């Protein structure tokens, strides 16, 4: 019995060898096409078995020739099996079936209501909700907009409160970029280019663009990879470009660079990025155009001038809080401030990244947003600078909550990916996206119908705005900008709940400048005192209260 248990794993291989021999004999005797087919199939399995036994890399294949491949096949389709057969409607991996279904319904323009009450655990820690008014309002104009542009901006932009977040051409297919941009054009909202430059597919749709530049300076770089003011001006002054966004970091992989291998660089990608063919394209972790907070503010001022007065801002995921305060101090000392700041949460993530970065690096969006909002309030700059928020913002409730905690508008990447047909296969980095979205394979992307998907993008935006208007009216308000932390409740431990003013309170205007002695603000004041406009390097680090 022991011998049989040890050797039963070789039965498929032995069977392949026997069938190969039998079919070969049958072929010699009859010259039948059926025997030929049987021989080819059996011989193929026999060759696989021989290879499995001889290869040195995979112990499973050596111990289980032929049938060991089933393990790898099942593993390769594991995400799809979990998603379609085992995942419940509310399992988040990273977006639940319930949320994806909501996007699909709104993008298609079909019924998005739910019967029979909530399935949320309303008494569980972390649950939060919107407080409603006994005198709700009916809102007819749902085209909610926010003006972005500070006192140094001569060409402010009237942005929708819900726009397409940064996703590069190269990461997304040509058809996906075209569908998103045409949808933005039809819906009257903005499309962030991502750091990969402005491609022909961004331009042909005619939708408003937010031109993002990052450490690679794609579309505005010299041959050595440094920033080119001349090339930037040519891009930024295009009438289709409405704002300029400098990416310092992103939620998917803050503090991490990237590389696009030469094998994945097509002529169209090279054209958009301004890079040569046949060479790896490196995105450094840090910028080369500036290295101190003061230099960064001067860079912002330079870009605003080169862009002929258009709004210039930056995007980041909060890491060291003191470093953000360094930027704010530089704004005060130089008199140069961005027109906007986009706060990305670590839960953001269209970019593939190491697991440690995906799971454990960077501040979540709600906390990061509230920190940026209160730091600007404390420095007396909040009224001058608009704040955008990004990071799993898909539903109208997500938008409302973010705006209550400090955002002036919101961006979404994966929400709009769902709108054009993403099924969350999580194969974005493999070039084998089944929906033709995150791939450069011409045959796969050809399956994505640009006309149909662009209409879905516009409908998703419109229907989400409509749902947002219903939430605004239910709270007794007339515009989402009127949401305050007060309008939300957050359940903490032991079934207790906090008013939004307690969970995410607004701190006093100017308290960092006056050096408030309020005990609850001591950590803020200490961090502010350790920040410098001249360097990101800390002169001293905070110590434990028990440190000598």
From TrEMBL:
Transmembrane segments: 7-27
Gene3D superfamilies: Aldolase class I
CDD domains, per the entry: GltS_FMN (cd02808)
Record-stated family: Belongs to the glutamate synthase family.
One Pfam family cited in the UniProt record for this chain: Glu_synthase
Classification via InterPro entries: Aldolase_TIM, GltB, Glu_synthdom, YerD
Glutamate synthase domain span: 163-477
Keyword terms, alphabetized: Membrane, Transmembrane, Transmembrane helix
Protein name: FMN-binding glutamate synthase family protein
Database matches in PANTHER family: ARCHAEAL-TYPE GLUTAMATE SYNTHASE [NADPH]
SUPFAM superfamilies registered for this protein in UniProt: FMN-linked oxidoreductases (SSF51395)
Top-level taxon of origin: Bacteria
């Amino acid at each position: 019995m022991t011998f049989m248990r040890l050797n039963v794993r070789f039965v498929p291989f032995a069977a392949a060898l026997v069938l190969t021999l039998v079919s070969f004999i049958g072929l010699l005797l009859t010259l039948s096409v059926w025997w030929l087919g049987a021989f080819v199939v059996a011989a193929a399995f026999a060759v696989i078995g021989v290879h499995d036994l001889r290869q040195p890399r995979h112990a499973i294949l050596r111990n289980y020739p032929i049938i060991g491949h089933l393990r790898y096949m099942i593993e390769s389709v594991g995400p799809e099996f979990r998603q379609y057969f085992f995942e419940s409607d509310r399992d988040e991996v990273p977006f639940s079936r319930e949320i994806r279904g909501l996007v699909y319904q709104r993008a298609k323009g079909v019924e998005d209501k739910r019967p029979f009450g909530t399935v949320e655990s309303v008494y569980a820690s972390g649950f939060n909700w919107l407080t409603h008014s006994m005198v709700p309002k009916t809102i007819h104009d749902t085209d909610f907009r926010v003006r972005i542009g500070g006192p140094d901006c001569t060409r402010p932009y009237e942005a929708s409160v819900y726009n397409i977040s940064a996703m590069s051409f190269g990461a997304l297919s040509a058809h996906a970029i075209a569908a998103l941009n045409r949808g933005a054009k039809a819906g009257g909202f903005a499309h962030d280019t991502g750091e990969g430059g402005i491609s022909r597919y961004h331009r042909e749709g005619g939708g408003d663009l937010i031109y993002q530049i990052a450490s690679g300076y794609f579309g505005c770089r010299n041959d050595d990879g440094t920033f080119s003011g001349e090339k930037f001006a040519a891009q930024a002054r295009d009438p289709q470009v409405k704002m300029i966004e400098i990416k310092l970091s992103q939620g998917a992989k803050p503090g991490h660079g990237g590389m696009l291998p030469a094998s994945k660089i097509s002529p169209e990608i090279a054209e958009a990025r301004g890079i040569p063919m046949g060479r790896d394209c490196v995105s450094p972790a840090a910028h080369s155009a500036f290295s101190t907070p003061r230099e960064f503010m001067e860079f912002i001022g330079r870009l605003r001038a080169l862009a002929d007065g258009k709004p210039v801002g930056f995007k980041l995921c909060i890491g060291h809080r003191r470093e953000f305060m360094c930027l704010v101090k530089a704004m005060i000392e130089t008199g140069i401030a961005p027109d906007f700041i986009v706060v990305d949460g670590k839960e953001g993530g269209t970019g593939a990244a190491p697991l440690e970065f995906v799971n454990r690096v960077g501040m979540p969006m709600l906390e990061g947003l509230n920190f940026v909002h209160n730091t600007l309030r404390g420095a007396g700059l909040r009224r001058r600078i608009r704040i955008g928020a990004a990071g799993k913002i898909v539903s109208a409730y997500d938008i409302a909550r973010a705006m209550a905690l400090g955002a002036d508008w919101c961006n979404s990447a994966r929400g709009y990916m769902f709108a054009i047909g993403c099924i969350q296969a999580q194969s974005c980095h493999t070039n084998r996206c089944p929906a033709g979205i995150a791939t450069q394979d011409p045959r796969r992307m050809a399956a994505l119908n640009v006309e149909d998907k662009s209409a879905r993008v516009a409908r998703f935006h419109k229907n989400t705005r409509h749902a947002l208007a219903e939430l605004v009216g239910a709270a007794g308000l007339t515009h989402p900008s009127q949401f305050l932390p007060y309008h939300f409740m957050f359940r903490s431990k032991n079934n207790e709940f906090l008013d939004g003013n307690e969970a995410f309170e607004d701190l006093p205007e100017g308290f960092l400048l006056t050096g408030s002695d309020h005990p609850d603000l001591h950590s803020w004041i200490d961090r502010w005192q350790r920040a410098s406009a001249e360097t990101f390097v800390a002169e001293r680090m905070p110590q434990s209260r028990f440190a000598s």
